[in-house]
Amino acid sequence: MAAYGLANSLTFVSLMVIWFAIAHANVVEVGGEMGWVVPRDTSDDVYNHWASLNRFQVGDTIHFKYKNDSVMVVVEEDYNNCNSTHPIFFSNNGNTRYELDRPGLFYFISGEEGHCDLGQKMIIKVLNLPNDISPTESPSDKAPSPLPPLSPPSQPERSGTIVRIRDFNKMASVFGFFSLMFSGFLLG
């Protein structure tokens, strides 16, 4: 009987650790319901306004949903000039995910001719420092590392114009591992 109490306590603690780790990495839908498109009003700074309403942290992933377009990460000068000739990252699959893997500014533009000039560009500021940067290393020394495109999850959890998606498959796998481990402990 005491073994069941111990197993239940360990299961609860394991679930809390898993939830805490997963709850802090978000997938955010760029542009909310609008997605990644040429803004209707070119005088409006739609995407930078949208980005300013959100708080991005290291480890968050931004998700671009679009048709007949592309997403590029560029340096500040190329962002300011809508220059798409030397992107740091490029994707045109219509369903792009990009991990914000360092603090600082990320510059995004559409790679389709004329779209950036029409306002399809965005700056995202990532706020917190990751644990792996030493005090002498500058955050700008790290180049962003893109994630490969992933398929969208089946049931996102909606919160305003932000979609936060938990990686339930990972949680289920870890929970299954711990369940098997505890079952073996109880039976053996």
From TrEMBL:
Residues 145-155 have a biased composition (Pro residues). InterPro entries: Cupredoxin (IPR008972), ENL_dom (IPR041846), Phytocyanin-like (IPR039391), Phytocyanin_dom (IPR003245). One of its GO terms (molecular function) is electron transfer activity. One of its GO terms (cellular component) is endomembrane system. It is found in: Endomembrane system; Membrane. Its main location: membrane. Keywords: Disulfide bond, Glycoprotein, GPI-anchor, Lipoprotein, Membrane, Signal, Transmembrane, Transmembrane helix. Residues 134-159 are annotated as: Disordered. The chain crosses the membrane at residues 6-27, 168-187. Residues 26-128 form the Phytocyanin domain. It is a lipid-anchor; GPI-anchor. Pfam families: Cu_bind_like. SUPFAM superfamilies: Cupredoxins. PANTHER family: BLUE COPPER PROTEIN, EARLY NODULIN-LIKE PROTEIN 5-RELATED. Belongs to the early nodulin-like (ENODL) family. This is Phytocyanin domain-containing protein.
